[in-house]
Amino acid sequence: MPSEQVSTRDERTGALLERTKVRGRAIRRRRHFRQSALFAGLLMAAVAAVLVPTHALRLHSSTTKVTVPGPAGGPVPQGFEPGSTSFISTQIGWTLGSYTCSARPCVALLRTADGGTTWGAIPAPAPVRAPTGELVGASAVAFADASDGYAYGTYMNGGDASILWTTHDGGATWHLVASLLGASPFFIDNLQVTSSHVYMQFEGWNPTFIPGTSLPEGDDGHYRLAWSSARTDAFTLLVDLGTPSYAQPGADTQTGSVGGYPHLATVEGDRAFIVGNDELTIFDGTRFTSTGLGQLASDPVCADTIADLVASSATDLVAECGRGVGGGSMGARELYGTTDDGEHWVRLPDPPQAPYDDCGLTDAGQGHASLCGTSAGGSVLFVTGDFARTWHTGLSFSGDGGAYFGDLQFEDPLHGAVIHAPGSAFSSTPTAPPVLYLTSDGGFHWWPVHFDSR
């Protein structure tokens, strides 16, 4: 497809960035929340060798609080430990976690309006009694904006079913979603939000083990993708993704198709990107279009596993391929990028080849990107600030028992957040103390958050 290089001013940063005009329109980078990435700058560097000046260090936190709708913040509970975090700007964010109490689960939700300098407790979703009799609290949180948020927790067999809560008043009240499109109980595989919508991939529930499959009692292996306006809980079915081969009677393994079974990979604006069965399928808010995976299908590393697929604009994507230690390849990694909805892919510089399984990929734009990995021996977060020409270790923990990183996210090229050992906040057998880290220089330096309500 013919294209031309154009310069356009990014509306948030004011920086002149190179963009590619595809199908007669300029591609602009848009902000996206919850693990979606802004990798356009990285890809443009590989294609056009664009150079962006280094940024000066700025503080993540601020002494000036912004006004946030919702309840006033109260004292932080004693012994609070972070398990999930969600920022919608460099100043406004929430952290869900547990605290010291006599009868678990004891769940607290904190909010900051000054970039993490101070925190106040607001109402958290109240734990509910599951059909199994378990008392279930929320363990993950995602906010679309200052008013609309989502939280969920899991139960049964260590997490085969989910409980979902929503708020539309900034956390003053939370509402229990009893069923999803008729499925109850249900299991949330993937929940992602933008400033306007929430996308959710989920499964139904089986009361008994299905002979001849690899499914335990609990999830039914039937994947659906639903969405809703972030302002309501009116979920509708986008697509029935069906049942992957490994979950069908008589089969115990996944097919060898590129991308594996179809699944929601990422969202950007009103677009959802679904990868699997040798195809990339894009939902643009009204219709679906599909394309083959091109060079990814012919690359043996990508054909084995597409670990992450992230979007930086309506048409710009980056895929991280690699088997990880679980596949016996000692963490082989490759990066590919596209600026035309996956019709053509470009090989990008390889990230670090370390013995880690993938646990997240983001791009803050302007050449700043991060990826994390974990193994039984420890966890590491790699960062780049020069369009992947060089990578550096931003955070590293040895001997953490594979505690991994959670909720890796950036709100601009410099400001990001991540939690190390997030599962420990809700576990009776923690692998390492959970800690929320913030950065203000693109991930090269991080500092731990000490929660208080000064």
Overview of the structural elements:
- There is one protein chain.
- The protein has 454 residues and is mainly beta.
- It is 4% helix and 41% strand.
- It contains three helices and 33 strands.
- A four-stranded antiparallel sheet has the order 4-5-6-7, with no helix packed on it. A four-stranded antiparallel sheet has the order 10-11-12-13, with no helix packed on it. Strands 14-15-16-17 form a four-stranded antiparallel sheet, with no helix packed on it.
- The longest helix is centred in the first third of the chain and has 9 residues, at 40-48.
- The radius of gyration is 21 Å and the shape is globular.
- The chain starts with a strand and ends in a 6-residue tail after the last strand.
- Mean pLDDT is 77; it is low at 1-40, 42-61, 245-257 and 325-329.
Structural class: mainly beta
Described by the principal axes of the CA atoms, the overall outline is globular
Give the integer mean of the pLDDT values: 77
Strand order of the largest sheet: 4-5-6-7
Largest sheet: 4 strands, antiparallel
The unreliable regions are 1-40, 42-61, 245-257, 325-329
Fraction in beta strands:
35-45%
What is the number of E strands? Answer: 33
In terms of quaternary structure, the protein is: single chain
Alpha carbon gyration radius: 21 Å
Distance between the termini: 56 Å
| Total number of helices | 3
Helix content bin: under 10%
